[in-house]
Amino acid sequence: PNYLGSRPVRITLAVFAFALIVPLIFSAPISAKWGTYRPNVYFGVRSKSELSSLFGIAWFDPQNPNFLDAIRHDCEEFDKLKRYGWLKHNGDSFGVQELLDQHVGVNLTTQFIQPVDENGVVQKDRWVARVSGEPLQSGSTTKMSFLWYLSLSDIQHSFKVKNMPTDDSPDIKLMIKSGQAGDHIFNVNAAISQGSSISFIGLNGGRDSWDIKSHVKNIYQPLLAQHYRKKKPQEHGKKKKDSEHKEKKQKQKHEPFIPKLPNTFDSSSTVLLFQYDLIVGTPFSIDFILTPSTAPKQENDQLSAMKYVDYLLEKGKKEYDNRFSQVFGLEKKGYSKDEIKFASESMSNLLGGIGYFFGDSIHQMTRFDSRMQENVWQNIVMSPSNLLTAV
Questions:
Q1: Which of 9, 194, 351, 352 could tie 91 with a disulfide, CB 3.0–4.6 Å?
Q2: Helices 306-328, 337-352: crossing angle, 10 deg rounding
Q3: Residue 20: pLDDT above 90?
């Protein structure tokens, strides 16, 4: 249905969105705020600071021989996802997003929330993200390679790994040492199906630590080339004619390349990349929890409990729905459920599309050219600054 012509809804949404965005920009301190400020990727988290660590996800179909050209990470029309977008987002500390990928055959849900303290104040220096998924078609089973990563933006920052995952124990704990920005504990708790496998790599991404898609391609392209070189038929004098050898050679010829990371890591790594090869026949869920290293152990243990994360996310949804209903009052104005859902998702995608950027910017300005005796345009590179963007 086309609800874009509903002028009262448009105006009310614009006013409310503006009322949310202004405090978001001017509230202090800017360096202490984490959020989904990476709208150019399907799901990512960073803080509003120039040297923030970056968190994000990617996925692909491992059975696709051209998987390197079909990695889902950046929001690209070429991926042809059936649908993706924020279902609920308050522009700050809570959001729920749905991603339907008919080519891989999965329905992914990403959720983000920041807990509150005993006084009901949002704790801006910690967050929880949950990525869950299920088959797009009920009763079906599909394979998916799911990746998540942490990337450092400053070579002075480092990782300290507490424990690495195994196929039998997929949970992870590590520390992000960020100097003046403070150290953080990062926990990962995974509820995945039996038969799934996990691999990882730590690498030095240099100044391009953020370019995860290129890193994945650089890892797998030589492994692909090596795999198919091994599969070339070898001639050793006279041909063997027995059927057993022919059958074995034919099987090797069609054996697919199974992408797996090499399970290597060293102290100089600025990018940590983990790959979960999942058999998606039943729902799976992976929680990512970031807290300051100074947080009490009891709090870390509580946030790491999946049932408590269930509670936080349900609470966030109810608070969002109540706030939306309270501000807009669309039910009382006679709007249908479909129209209210459309209005809510439209506003959520506006607020969820807020991004943060720090760096140089180019300004076009005029100056008087004495030789030509007229004003001319010129590009001037301005000093680095903070910028909030909207998609």
A1: 351
A2: 110
A3: no
